[in-house]
């Protein structure tokens, strides 16, 4: 596992549900923020702890053998809702990352993709990954595909 030292900036969004850290990774316009918001809303409706870590940019590093995502100070506590603007919400400054959700641009997701290889985030990792598919990645989808990683 590399990435010890200064954190690397990655274009992604990160949240925590229960004690599970999720990173949403993909190109601009692939729905990273929308998927993160959907998971946060679903967790809230189920009465589960959930919090934003960071949106649009995360700082990643390792410490004690785990991968950490941090909120850059300039954007801490804000998440974009396309067509609405920036929303303020409670956030965690740092969280352990357990799973990377790979987001694709609309219309480009494969119907039956091969399972993804573990992902490196700016040289930090490897981390298990999951394809988001064409639909919004909800907490239920993450729980169904990777129940071993969802720590509620």
Give the tags.
Rossmann fold, mainly beta, five-stranded mixed sheet, 152 residues, 2 helices, 13 strands, 14% helix, 37% strand
Fold and architecture overview:
- Helix content is about 15%, strand content about 35%.
- It has 2 helices and 13 strands; from the N terminus they run βββαββββββββββα.
- The protein has helices spanning about 30-45, 140-145; strands at about 10, 10-15, 20-25, 50-55, 60-65, 65-70, 80, 85-90, 95, 100, 120, 125, 130.
- β11 and β12 (about 125) form a beta hairpin.
- The longest helix is centred in the N-terminal third of the chain and has 14 residues, at about 30-45.
- The radius of gyration is 14 Å and the shape is globular.
Radius of gyration: 14 Å
- The structural class is mainly beta
Main β-sheet, in a few words? 5 strands, mixed
What is the architecture at the second tier of CATH?
A: 3-Layer(aba) Sandwich
Counting DSSP E segments of at least 2 residues, the number of strands comes to 13
Instruction: State the helix count.
Output: 2
**CATH class group:** Alpha Beta
Distance between the termini: 26 Å
What's the CATH superfamily, by name? P-loop containing nucleotide triphosphate hydrolases
């Amino acid at each position: 596992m590399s990435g010890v030292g200064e954190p690397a900036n990655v274009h992604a969004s990160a949240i925590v549900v229960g004690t599970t850290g999720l990173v949403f990774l993909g190109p601009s316009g692939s729905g990273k923020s929308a998927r993160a918001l959907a998971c946060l809303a679903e967790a809230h409706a189920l009465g589960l702890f959930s919090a934003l870590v960071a949106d649009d940019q995360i700082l990643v590093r390792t410490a004690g053998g785990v991968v950490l995502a941090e909120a850059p100070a300039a954007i801490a506590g804000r998440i974009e809702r396309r067509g609405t603007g920036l929303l303020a919400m409670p956030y965690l400054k740092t969280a352990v990352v357990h799973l990377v959700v790979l987001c694709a641009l609309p219309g480009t997701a494969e119907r039956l993709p091969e399972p993804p290889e573990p992902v490196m985030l700016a040289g930090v990792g490897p981390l298990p990954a999951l394809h988001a598919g064409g639909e919004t990645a909800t907490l239920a989808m993450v729980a169904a595909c990777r129940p071993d990683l969802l720590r509620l």
